[in-house]
Amino acid sequence: MILENFLIAIARVVDLTLQLFVWLVIARALISWFSPDPYNPLVQFLFRVTEPVLSPLRNFLPHFGGIDLSPIVVLLAAEFLRSFLVKTLVSLAYSGF
Length: 97
Fold this sequence. Notes:
- This protein has one domain (2-95).
- Helix 1 (2-32) packs across helix 2 (41-60), helix 1 (2-32) runs antiparallel to helix 3 (70-95) and helix 2 (41-60) crosses helix 3 (70-95).
- The protein is built from 3 helices and no strands.
- By secondary structure, the protein is mainly α.
């Protein structure tokens, strides 16, 4: 029973972390449509948190007329992880291994 609760707690933390990261990527994408002040602490925070994930993807993805597709790929990957990993952890916890 303890291991079951532990796996469910891990699943919830992973789910919450992925949800938070999705919102940070969305905020970053929305801010990029404007001319953000690079010295704004909020803009700096968004760039520091999302750039390590978005930057490597930009090297592999093609550019379509200056449109950055890396946020879309990250959002899809986060949704996949939420659908697969979190649900697998919960199912594993309830099945009793």
